[in-house]
């Protein structure tokens, strides 16, 4: 197995007629050292079930496979999705059945039941790539059951080996002959134009995700990872804190991408934690967050007036929650937002 080099990236792109598009935020990593740094920072170990969004030509995919992970790659691009398995077959044939590809927009994922498992975890003969339009492989297998399996250690055994011990375990279902497995890690070079909504969506619909390491635009990394009271703390920071603790995990040079982007990049690490203890729903808490930051310069009493129905009603809710009405939204942590939502 070897990772992609700059000549490999250009050849694969030329052969497939691929031209990176700004609309999809496509910038391909061509530096093996950077790929291995990302995998190392993500603490990927053999047997991990890893979700990758926007794999592109497969630079990071190969790094994850090199570390022994089972990879579920979600690719929206009509050319890239079918190209990825061929690239892996060329550069890492011994790990090809550790990869499953879902041709879909990551924002349309509604749960783990949409995600296929790699072929090493599939019943004999079942394909490991799906199209989101149907949710089914091209050749349907008459099978429909539910089971629990352990994540297998190696892709050398074909088919499903129930009860095989591994470093981690996962709950899987089999429908139409396709095993669907919930990933425990998200490791990705996220398309910069949709990084925040993709991250928040996946944290919500895939509760199995225990840890996240994503490469995003440096400015976006700050907005996700900064604590209350900082200049860049805002809606993404507060909402991400509902699901996980977050922090920056390093910077990435522009020089490792093709084409070279106009922005700097950074790694963000998130570790799943329990949401705040509150009787308010996530939607109710996020509504308070949105209202508080809609008018960032205003005090909470004024900013939450529309949300509460009036400024006096907002002040009353704030006082019940134990929050000073003269504070501003950027000073509140997610626990305080939850208390306000509960006090309404």
What descriptors fit this protein?
alpha/beta; Rossmann fold; 2 domains; 3-stranded antiparallel β-sheet
Q: What structural class do you assign from the helix and strand content?
A: alpha/beta
The CATH architecture designation of the largest domain is: 3-Layer(aba) Sandwich
| Euclidean distance between termini CA atoms | 58 Å
The description of the largest β-sheet is: 8 strands, mixed
Q: Tell me the overall shape.
A: elongated
CATH superfamily of the largest domain: Vaccinia Virus protein VP39
- Spell out the helices and strands N to C: HEHEHEHEEEEEEHEHHEEEHHHHH
Number of strands: 13
Q: Quickly count the domains.
A: 2
Q: What is the C-alpha radius of gyration, as a whole number of Å?
A: 22 Å
Low-confidence segments: 136-169
Strand content: 15-25%
Approximately how much helix is present in the residues?
25-40%
Q: What is the mean pLDDT? A: 86
CATH class annotation of the largest domain: Alpha Beta
Main sheet strand line-up: 5-4-3-2-9-10-13-11
Determine the CATH topology of the largest domain: Rossmann fold
Tally the helices: what do you get? Answer: 12
Produce the secondary structure layout:
Layout: H1 6-16, E1 28-29, H2 32-41, E2 49-53, H3 59-66, E3 70-75, H4 80-91, E4 99-103, E5 129-131, E6 144-150, E7 169-175, E8 178-181, E9 185-189, H5 195-205, E10 211-217, H6 218-225, H7 235-243, E11 244-252, E12 257-258, E13 265-272, H8 282-294, H9 300-303, H10 305-308, H11 311-321, H12 334-343
């Amino acid at each position: 197995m070897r990772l992609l080099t700059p000549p490999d990236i250009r050849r694969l792109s030329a052969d497939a007629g691929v031209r990176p598009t700004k609309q999809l935020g496509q910038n391909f990593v061509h530096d093996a050292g950077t790929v291995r740094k990302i995998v190392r920072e993500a603490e990927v170990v053999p047997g991990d079930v890893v979700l990758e969004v926007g794999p592109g030509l497969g630079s990071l995919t190969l790094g994850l496979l090199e570390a022994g992970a089972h990879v579920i790659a979600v690719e929206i691009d009509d050319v890239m999705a079918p190209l990825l398995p061929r690239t892996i077959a060329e550069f890492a044939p011994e790990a090809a059945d550790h990869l499953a590809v879902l041709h879909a927009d990551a924002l349309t994922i509604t749960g783990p039941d949409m995600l296929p498992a790699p072929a090493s975890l599939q019943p004999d003969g079942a394909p490991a790539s799906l199209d989101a339009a149907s949710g089914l492989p091209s050749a349907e297998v008459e099978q429909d059951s539910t089971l629990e399996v352990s994540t297998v250690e190696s892709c050398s055994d074909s088919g499903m080996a129930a009860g095989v011990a591994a470093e981690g375990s996962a709950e899987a279902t089999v429908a139409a002959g396709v095993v669907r497995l919930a990933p425990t890690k998200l490791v990705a070079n996220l398309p910069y134009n949709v990084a925040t909504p993709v991250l928040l969506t996946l944290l919500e619909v895939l509760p199995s995700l225990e840890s996240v390491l994503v490469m995003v635009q440096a400015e976006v990394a700050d907005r996700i990872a900064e604590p209350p009271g900082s200049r860049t703390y805002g809606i993404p920071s507060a909402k991400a804190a509902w699901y996980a603790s977050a922090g920056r995990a390093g910077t990435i040079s522009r020089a490792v991408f093709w084409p070279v982007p106009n922005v700097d990049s950074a790694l963000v690490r998130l570790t799943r934690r329990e949401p705040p203890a509150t009787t308010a729903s996530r939607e109710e808490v996020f509504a308070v967050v949105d209202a508080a930051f809609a008018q960032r310069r205003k005090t909470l009493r004024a900013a939450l007036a529309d949300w509460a129905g009036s400024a006096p009603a907002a002040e009353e809710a704030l006082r019940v929650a134990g929050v000073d009405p003269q504070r501003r939204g950027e000073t509140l942590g997610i626990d305080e937002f939850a208390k306000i939502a509960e006090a309404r």
